[in-house]
Structure formats: C-alpha cells, structure tokens
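ok so i was messing around last nite and threw this chain in just to see what happens. nothing serious, just curious
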Amino acid sequence: MDIAAELTRLGVDADSSTRRLAEYSYDASNYRVPPLAVTFPHTAREVATVVGWCHEHRVPVVPRGGGTSMGGNAIGPGVVIDLSRHLDRVLSVDAESATAVAGAGIVLTSLAAEARAATDGTLTFAPDPSSASRATLGGAIGNDACGNHSVRHGRTSDHIVELHLVTAEGLLLTATRDGLRATDPADGAAVTRAAEITGSLRELTAANLAILRTQLETIPRQVSGYHLAKLLPENGFDVARALVGSEGTCAIVVSASVALVPVATSQLLLCIGYRSPADAARDVPAILPFAPSAIEGIDRKIVATMAARRGRESVAGLPAGSAWLFVDLDEHSAAAQSESDVSATAKRLLDHLRAQGRMIGAAVVDDPVHRNALWRVREDGAGLSSRLADPDDESIGDGYESWPGWEDAAVAPERLADYLDDFAGLLDHHGLTGVMYGHFGAGCMHVRITFDLRSAEGRTVMARFCTEAAELVVRHGGSLSGEHGDGRARSALLPIMYSPAMMSAFARFKAIWDPHGILNPGSIVDPAPITTDLALADVPRRSWPTSFTLGHDTAGPDPAELPLIDPFVHAVQGCIGVGRCRADAGGVMCPSYKATRDEKDSTRGRARVLQDMVRTAPTVDDGWRSTDVAEALELCLSCKACSTDCPTGVDMATYKSEFLDHHYRRRLRPLSHYSLGWMPAWLSAAGLAAPVLNRALRSRLSGPAARAGGLDPRRTMPAFASHRARRTHLGPLAPVDASSSVVLFVDSFTRAFRPHVATAVAEVLRAAHSVDRASNPVGCASDNCCGLTWISTGQLGRARKVLRRTVADLDDGTDRPIVVVEPSCAAALAKDLPELIPTEAARRVAARVRSFAAHLPALLDAGWRPPALPDEVTLQTHCHEYAVFGARVGVAALEALGVTVHTADGCCGVAGNFGFEKGHYEVSMAVAENGLAPALRDAPHRPVVTDGFSCAMAVEHLATVDDDLSRGRPRGVHLAELLATSPDTATDIRGVRP
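result:
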C-alpha cells in the first residue's frame, strides 16, 4: 500500500520518496528509524485526517516539530507528521490576560518575539531551551522543555493554559487546567470520547493516590515518565499539564494556549570562572538566594571549540577558569536583595562568592550584544561538545566524537556537586570522557560522552554505563531526564527510577489515550533496549576516496586495513541533528532553508541524506551516483556558512564539491559547469571582445545565450571590462619582487569585471605600507587562480592542477601577507587550498592569505587612516569571508573608523555561480529577501559595501528589478573603493565613479 498516495487522495501533503524518508529518519539523538511516509498538514483538521486514517489501518504516527529531540522521541516507524511547516502561526495574543494561542509548529523564539511585539515589549513566552531558535512549541510541550532561565520560570508545563489535541482516533479535543472537552461541542464523537477519557483518568488517579503523591514532583526537574501528579485533586485534575511531557504518545498537540510572563528590563550577565564544573556546582546554593533568572554552566572545552569555530572574539570577555557559570541578574534579583540597582546586586553576589573561596575570576557583562554573544557559547553546547577543537592545539578533537544518551539527568540543585563527583568517577570506571554543561541552577546536567556506538563492544559499554548512571542519579534522588524526555534513550531505564506500580500507572495512562498504541510507539511505555536502532551501528566499513583531505588517510582495499571510520563518513556524520541550520537568526546558515522552509534544503537534511548514502548504497560507486543526494544538494548555495555557524563544523560546500566531482565523473555535466565552472579559462579572451559581448548581453541575444550556457536569462549579467580598462588599471601594478612588503593577488573576477577595484586595493596598500620605504611595497600577482569555480562545480582534478601552479608561484620563502581582492578567492586559498593540496608549501601559502577586509585591521594598527568616510554604510559580508575570516570582518574595522555599519545579515542569494544557474532564480531572490533586499530598501541611498563580486551583482540585479530601489539605484562598492583617495579609484559616493 502506498501510504503517501492514500493520504494525498485525502487532501494531505504527503511524501514517501527515499530522500524524504532519509531526512526524517533522524532527530538529534543517537537513533535512526525510517518512517513509511512524511506529511505536512496545513490545519488541525488535516492532522485529524492523517491520524484517523492511521488509526483505521493501525499505522504508527509520530508527531514532529523542529526535530531537535536528543532522546529519539521525534522519529519512529509509520507516518511522521511535521507540524513545523504550516502550523506555525501565533493565532492571538491577549495582553490583559497575559496569554497567547499559537500553533504547535511555531518556533519558540518566534512565539516570544511576536508576544513582545503584540504587547509593546512587556510580555514574552518564558521557556528558552538552547534550541529555542528552531525548536517548536509542540516539541517543548512534548518534552516539557525548560531552558536557560528555568531557575526563574520553571518548565513548559508551568506555562500551559490549554492544549488543543488530536486524539489517536483522529478526534479534536481540548485539555484544560481542570478537565477535557470536545473542541467542537457539536461533535458528538468527540464529546463521547472526552467523557470516556475523563472517567478513566479519574479512576486511574483514585487508584494511585499514594504513589502519585510520593514518587512524582520530588525535584524541580523531574521530567521522566508521565506527569500524573497533575491529576491529583489538590492540583485540580489538570489534564492539560498532565499531558505535557508525554512525548506525543497520548495525543497530538496542534495548538496551545500559553501563559506569558513580564519581560525583564535590566538584565546583566555575570560570567564566573572556576577550576572545575564541580566547584561551580558547589556555589549554586550560594547564588540562588539572589534570585537570578539563570545559572548555567559550561566546560572549558566548549569555550575552546567555540573559539576555533567562530574566532576568539566569540568568547572574548570570559574570565580565567576551566569552567564557568553564566548568571543572569535583573530587577527582580535586585528586589530580592531589597535593592533597585542591579549592578549593586551583582557586586554583592560576587563579594559573597569570593568569600566562598572557589571563584577564580569574574566578568560583568551589561552590553546586550556582548551578552548575547556569550550566551551563544552556552546555547551551542550540545553541538560544540560533540566535535571538539582548540585554536591553540590542532591535536585537540582529532578523531574525537561524543554523543547523547545520558545527557539530561537532574538532581536537586544542592546535590549537584556531589552527583558530579560521583558521575566523573563512573565515567573513569568505564574509560569514558564527558564534556559537562547545563542548567546548574536547576540541578540539570547535560553531558556528551565518548561512547563508541559503531562497535558491538562499545554499545555494550554504553548500555552498562547508562544503567549504572541511572542507578547513580536515583541514589541522589534525581531524575533520568530533566527536560529532554525519555524517548528511545531512557524509557527502558525507567523501572530503575520508578516502582512497578508507577510503571503500571504509566502504561494505563497511555492505554486510556491510545488503546491501540499507534502514537509514537516505544517512548515511555513498551520501549526497546536503548541500543536498538542506533544510527552508527552497522554502517558498512569501506573507503570513500576523496580529493579533499578530510582526516587521516585510508589504507588499502582490504577492509581489515581500513580505519574504523572513513574520513568522508566521519565528516558527513558530523551532523548530529541539533538543527542550528533551521534557525532564523544567529548566523548566515542556512540560506536555502530560510528561503524554502523545507528540511530538504537545510544543512541537516542534506547531511542526513548523505549519512543514508554511506549506510545504504550497495557500493561506493552507487553511492556517488545517488540521485537523492544530488537532489538534496541542488539548492545548496555552497556559501560555507555552515562550516562556522554549525556547532559541529559541518562543511556542506566541501561535501557538495566532493560529491559532484564523483557524481559527474565521466558523465555529461550541467551546462553551467562548463560556462561558469571554466570561466577563468575563457575570461582573458573575453576581455578582447568585451564591447561585442556587452552589446550582446544588452540585446535580444542575451536570453538565448544565457539558456545555452545553462543560465537563467532573468538574471542581470555582468559587464566585461574592456581591454583598455584592464590595461589602465592593471598595467601600472608592479609585479612581486624582493622589495615587496605585501603581495596583491588579483583574481580572475576582478581582472575581468572590475579591474578598478584592484587599483583601489593597491592604492590603500601602498599608502599603508609606505612607511616600509620599499621601492615596490605592493607586488601584484595577477596571473594566478584560486580554482574556486572548478571547486564549486566539483571539477576537482582541474582545481588541483590550477592550485598546484598557484602554490608554486606564491610559495616564495617569505611570510609577507597575500592580500586577495575577491573574498571568495581568499577563502578558497586559505581553506580549500591546503585541503586539496595537502603539502607544506600549500599550508605555508594558505597561512599568508588575507582578504582585504581581514587585512585592514593590521593597516589601522600600523597607524594608517583613510580620508573622510561616509557616516553610515550598509555592509554585505561575503559568506565565504564570513566563514573563513570571521563573522565581523569588515565591521570591526569600519566601526573603529567611526562609521556606523548596518549589516545585511545573511547571504546575498547569488553566491558565485548559484544565482546565475537555471532553476535557481526564485530561491536566489528569496534568499536575498532574508537580509540584503530589506537592507537596501531601508536606505537605498546609503553606500553599500560589497567586497564580493557576487554580492555586488546581487545589489545590481535588485536595483534593476525592484521598483522600490529604482530611484535610489544602490550600487555595491568594494571596501577599498570606499577608502581610496585618488580620482581613478574613488567611488561615486564622493561624486567620482571609476
């Protein structure tokens, strides 16, 4: 039976393609369970239609939000219902009652933002788990998520007013704080079913009063099991909150009414350093009387990995320590100390902690931007701790992998330090390592552990360790789960925590709601062993040869000689599903997902399809020919943002390049791979024919010519620089010689389309390096190529040949910087070059490469200053520059010069060849709407800095096709043009155009 076809006939969007099933076989846990179909309902009625059909045919149903579950409770057999695609709206906000109603698929940060917007910034939704920028309300309800500020605001269950449900039969009911009713009073079947469930729940409660009062709600974070204590008479028979934390096993939440809380107005962050996480935990009881809104802990290894991924500036301001507490104070904290000054309260708290003798350093952070940057270190803890790195030690993280499985235990806060000491001993006993972080103020510890999930022996160790860890946390009076739920990771361990009577009560609760057991089977009730369905188990051990160096070399064809983990397999398995690529803010990644809102077009979705490729392909050659992977990668812009924004460092641009190289080997490629991929080879000849080509591009021939090259005729094509322009701007640039202080690398794009930019860069460099008194301070290397177009189109044999020549020319035995005009070329030389040409010479060259914006701070530090600058600019940082040279490259230098910088956050949409290629135009334009287009409309007359040629082309195209920009006609200029002084290079913002 074709389930997707059956559901489609019922009017539901359903998909059972192998690619789609691969995307939804995983969440953020250790598990992989392929579904039978995935559905994307638009309304609660459509959800009911899906569940009703599944009930009739006894097909399991798994509700899913953002897919960020670490317990394995967002995957399962049967039909997955993705609520995040369409049921993602705020339906109402009532400031008077401080409540909001929202669909289950809305992202938590979106709900909070809309609540603030609707109440003039006075109210918000409180639960803020670290995944809040992509986790959904339904998921938070399913797991009873808490978040970084749970010390103040508790769990999601504390904020639920009503739940709007679809039952296992496909009926619509509403659970309230004091009962259950049919959502539509005229729906007779729903009225009857609500009465049946109500009667059964009252009987269950009456039969288990003693254990519900003594075994549940014993600590703040007791999330494991069902919340049956909410049904007690003293709790008002609170059916709504009893269902929170039920992980979709009893009913499917389609929307909810939630309580809102006041927004803090005077937030201040304390970063407090300690020698160890246990020392930090021992100070928690001393901090709690100061009524903080958050007490979060992180380990030094997480901080080092953040510095390696996103640059040292991302962790700037942390005090000395090997572990830190992040403590948020606000006006409520001051009031608890009978004070009105939050700063005074912070000082009082720090003095108190110094007296305890464990704190070794502290920093007070009151700047909102800096505060948010440091909070991101904690928020990305799950991903950062999975694949460690250290900017000061390249050996750190080599082959290191850690995984969830026992990442969410909780104890009473006053017992946390002793628990951590015993837990560290348990890790040592089993020869495991764990990186600790979490909600110290609530007693909830997150940890990633170096389980070996690939071998039978390692999985046995995991099972034994988790069993003993469960026994340990129970001895400390704690809970197996503090907010992530039980799922596949912990449900089988619940009998260690609860009595047989309680386990029977749980089973009865599930049966009342779901008599046939079709809703999220295997979570909480009737679970499989925790080592069943592990994603890393039984992946074939074979060699996937690559051009990129992704790890240690593989051995010969004999499987016995292969490493345990092939480098390519290890790379694509770097995605652990935390879903940062689905976030609306906090980075550039992932522009295609932001445009389409389809899991297929997220970094995670692509990684999951690649993971299934290395698992299920009959042979390696068959894997490289995968049409599923080709489809998943089609809308990847190769922006490289994931390599820095993804906490685990997934570099989808590299994986795409490698895949395309194999996929099209000895096969006909897309036309654009020839027209754009081989652009550097024909651009020189184009310069001689520039007048003819430019006239053709403005004529009726442009459409047929574009289509013949595999391009979209709607896209504005660049004008070729004439031979005279090239000679005028590039001719005077002296070649590199022994007296050159800096090497100016003029790339193919600059030579062909905007040679005046090279002149501007050279002028700035000459002015800044004039103190060297060299006869030729700037030497020009204009005959080399970075190979980027061949890399992005997966023609790696040709790319390596080009790069070898470039290395031979640039490796001159000096350490003088190589400043590259085009930032994408700079990124290719700095990152791709040593990975494709793994030689010492290539590494030496790569270490010397700078983009112009990245080199500018050195010029400013040496005392150089430009002439008058505009007061404000719009800055579109090239994605490759963002990924390789830092998120704030360009911004910091301009701000240091007194310029107000308005960043067009996100990708421009052109992204090299992507925006020009046939089939990409609509997505390219939608990507531009994420940041660049609104920024241009906001101030069309403001200078627009676009060091990247593709970014400049995006601005030019938007100015051509967007009516709102037609008057201002914004034009992208290179940063060097902004800084240059001569009439030949000054930009039109000074009245002179090159």
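not much to say yet. The chain has a mean pLDDT of 93.
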